[in-house]
Design goal:
The chain contains 14 helices and twelve strands. The chain is an alpha/beta fold. Strand 9 and strand 10 form a beta hairpin.
Length: about 325
C-alpha cells in the first residue's frame, strides 16, 4: 500500500512513522523543508509514550513527484485544509481516497468539495504529539482514534482504514456517528484549548485550578447549546464531566493551541471556538464566554502575526453552508 501523509507535522509524522514501522517503505511524508531535510539526513526520530526509534522514511516537500497513492492522510492545521487538498488532487483523480485527521468543524466537507470526490473520511484522534524540533516527534499521550464518513458508500474504506491504523499500534475504531464524534472532540477543544493557550498552562494545571474549571464549564455549556440547536447526538451523555476528565487524563499535555502560540504560529481558534460562535449567532444563541476567549486568543496571535497576510477565504466553511451541511446528516 502507498500511503501519503499531507502536512506531516507532529500528529502526521507520528501516524506516518507508526504506519511505516508496520509497513516498511509504504509511507511518504509531505512536510516543511526543515523537517524534510533532517529526516532525509538523520531519519525520523519518534520518542515518548510509544517508545523510541529512528526511521528511514520517505519525506518530500511536495506531492508533485508522486504519481499514485492508495490513501492520503491530510493532517494539516484546519485552516490549511483547502490548500492541502488542492496539492494532492492529482492523487485522488488517480484513485486514492482521503482521510482527514484534524481538529475543527466542517473541514472534510470543504475538502470533498474541492476534490470533487465523496471518497473522503473524517477522523479525530486523542493521540498527543509535539514536534520538538525538525525530525523529532515526541508522543505525549495515547488515546482512541475514530473514523467515519458522511457518505454511506465509504463503509468498506472505513473498515480498511481502521485495520490499517490498528496494525500500526494506534488504537482505532469506526463510527457511524462521525458528526457526533467531531462535535464531542470540539467541545473538549473549546473548553480546554483556549484556556491553556491564554494562561500558558498544561491541561492538568487548568484542571487543578478551581477558577479555570468554572471557566471551562461555561465554555462547554455554551457549545452544548449549539449542539442541541443543531440536533447533533454527542458520543457522551455528560460533556462537562467528559471535558474535565480529558483535562485530568492528559495532565502533562500542552494543548495544540498553546503549542502554536509558543511557536508563534497561527492557531486553530477560527475553526474551533470561532466556528461555534459564528454558528451560535446564526442560530440566535448567546456565547459571551466563548466570544471573550476567542478575542483574547486572537489578540495574542496579533502580537506575532501582525505583518502576516492571512486571507479570510478557505479558513472555515461559510456559516450558512456549514449549518446546512450539519442539518442534513
Amino acid at each position: 500500500m502507498n500511503i501519503v501523509i499531507m502536512g506531516a507535522g507532529a500528529i502526521g509524522s507520528l501516524f506516518g512513522g507508526m504506519m511505516e514501522m508496520a509497513q516498511p517503505g509504504a509511507v511518504t511524508l509531505i512536510a516543511r523543508q526543515p523537517h524534510v531535510e533532517v529526516i532525509k539526513k538523520n531519519g525520523l526520530q519518534i520518542k515518548g509514550v510509544v517508545g523510541e526509534t529512528v526511521l528511514d522514511i520517505n519525506a518530500e516537500t511536495s506531492a508533485n513527484g508522486i504519481a499514485e497513492a492508495d490513501v492520503v492522510f491530510i493532517t494539516t492545521k484546519a485552516y490549511d485544509s483547502v490548500a492541502a487538498a488542492r496539492k494532492i488532487k492529482h492523487l485522488i483523480d488517480n484513485g486514492a481516497y482521503v482521510v482527514v485527521v484534524q481538529n475543527g468543524l466542517g473541514t472534510e466537507n470543504q475538502i470533498a468539495k474541492v476534490l470533487g470526490s465523496r471518497r473522503v473520511l473524517r477522523a479525530t484522534t486523542c493521540m498527543g504529539a509535539i514536534l520538538e524540533s525538525p525530525g523529532v516527534v515526541n508522543a505525549t499521550g495515547e488515546g482512541i482514534t475514530e473514523i467515519g464518513s458522511h457518505y454511506p458508500e465509504n463503509s468498506e474504506l472505513i473498515k480498511m482504514t481502521v485495520e490499517l491504523i490498528n496494525d500500526a499500534n494506534i488504537k482505532t475504531r469506526g463510527s457511524e456517528n462521525i458528526e457526533g464524534v467531531v462535535w464531542t472532540k470540539t467541545i473538549v477543544n473549546c473548553g480546554i484549548n483556549p484556556i491553556g493557550a491564554i494562561t500558558d498552562m498544561k491541561n492538568g494545571e487548568v484542571y487543578s485550578s478551581a477558577v479555570l474549571r468554572e471557566l471551562v464549564i461555561k465554555l462547554v455549556e455554551e457549545t452544548v447549546e449549539v449542539v442541541k440547536a443543531l440536533g447533533i447526538e454527542l458520543t457522551t451523555t455528560d460533556p462537562i464531566r467528559y471535558t474535565l476528565g480529558t483535562a485530568k487524563a492528559t495532565a502533562n499535555n500542552t494543548n495544540s493551541m498553546l503549542q502554536d502560540i509558543k511557536a508563534r504560529k497561527r492557531t486553530e481558534i477560527e475553526t474551533i471556538t470561532g466556528a461555534v460562535v459564528k454558528m451560535a449567532h446564526k442560530l440566535g444563541l448567546e456565547t459571551p464566554t466563548s466570544e471573550a476567549v476567542y478575542a483574547l486568543v486572537k489578540a495574542i496571535e496579533a502580537k506575532y502575526l501582525e505583518n502576516e497576510d492571512v486571507p479570510d477565504e478557505d479558513i472555515t466553511m461559510a456559516t450558512d453552508e456549514l449549518i446546512k451541511t450539519l442539518s442534513t446528516h
